[in-house]
Amino acid sequence: MARPPGLSARLKLTLSYAGFLMLAGAALLVAGYFSLSRGVHPGVIFMVRSHADLWRDFAPIALAVMAFLLVFGLLGGWILAGRMLAPLTRITEAARVAAGGSLSHRIALDGRQDEFRELADSFDAMLARLEAHVAEQQRFAANASHELRTPLAITQTLLDVARNDPDSDTRELVDRLHAVNARAIDLTEALLLLSRADQRSFPREQVDLSLITEEVTETLLPLAEKRAVTIETSGDAALTVGSHALLLQMSTNLVHNAIVHNLPQGTVWVTAGTQPDSTVLTVENTGETLTPTLVSTLAEPFLRGTQRIRRDQAGVGLGLAIVQRIAHAHDGTLDLAPRPAGGLRVTVRLPAAS
């Protein structure tokens, strides 16, 4: 925004300090003058003989004192204002550096805690969050580009092979292209869903997570039966406020993930309920033994617990990332913990509906 030039904060403080000092000095001089004027009596030899004589003697002294206060106020005010505004200058310089694209710069203001130190610490914390967010976005963009390039490269390879071999099976080519295209569509829809959750641009209504989990279980039951996985649901009404579509997608991702990353003849436990001031959805599944280090990375985009090994129904690597974004968009939290007997326990906590 273009703004007209104005006085600097340092100059304003200097003028304010000098003006206040001169005002105080003028008040003292006036008080002194009136105190002396009370002692003026005609005929008293040791007193000043008249007000004119008093003013003639007092005026030069008053002018000298006011001139001294003006110079002292301007010089002292300029120095004091510079010292007081020095932290603000460093904060401004850091803001300019950050605006230029360097988010690694920190103010690191030393000294005792005061308003400027609190502002500097808050600014440093904001820069740290911005740097981490930008790094995450860059990493996400690179992974998304890689994931989107893969189906395109596969499609190009299949088309090149078919063009070089006119006698190839067209039906098999169509089936492969259909599978690759379906995966690209799933990935694109997942990316759009992530963007929608981050923007928080969705209507909010009262939602019962217990009813949503029942709907999800019925939808994914054929997949569970195909993989010989048993789904057990329990819980009472679990009311929260948010987007029904996003919460449905969140629950679907959790149950789908629990079914796919499971053991043969395994089990999935889905529980919805309420706690003081929160609505809780818990999804547990049997599976391989997971380390806490691996579990802490499972919500990162495009990272799969199978170390990127693709297999049937493995998804696009955004399942838990989408769950985390949706939970955060609803002012909730996502907790991942390995089960001692193997598998994963996922807990989503959302604010309870009033």
How is this structure best described in words?
With 354 residues, this protein is an alpha+beta fold. The chain folds into three domains: 9-38 and 46-97, no CATH class; 146-199; 205-351, 2-Layer Sandwich (Heat Shock Protein 90). The protein is built from eight helices and seven strands. The strands form two sheets. Strands 2-4-5-7-6 form a five-stranded mixed β-sheet. Strand 4 (267-275) and strand 5 (278-285) form a beta hairpin. Helix 2 (51-99) runs parallel beside helix 3, helix 5 runs parallel beside helix 6 (244-260) and helix 6 packs antiparallel against helix 8. The longest helix has 50 residues, at 115-164. It starts with 8 loop residues before the first helix and ends with a strand. The model is unreliable at 43-48 and 306-313 (pLDDT under 50).
Name some characteristics of this structure.
354 residues, alpha+beta, Heat Shock Protein 90, 3 domains, five-stranded mixed beta sheet, two-stranded antiparallel ribbon, 7 strands, 59% helix, elongated
Write the layout of secondary structure elements.
Blueprint (H helix, E strand, L loop, with lengths): L8 H29 L13 H49 L15 H50 L5 H30 L5 E4 H18 L3 E6 L3 E4 L1 H17 L6 E9 L2 E8 L6 H4 L23 H11 L3 E6 L5 E8 L3
Parallel strand pairs: 2-4
Antiparallel strand pairs: 1-3, 4-5, 5-7, 6-7
Summarize the structure.
Mean pLDDT is 80; it is low at 43-48 and 306-313. The chain contains 8 helices and 7 strands.
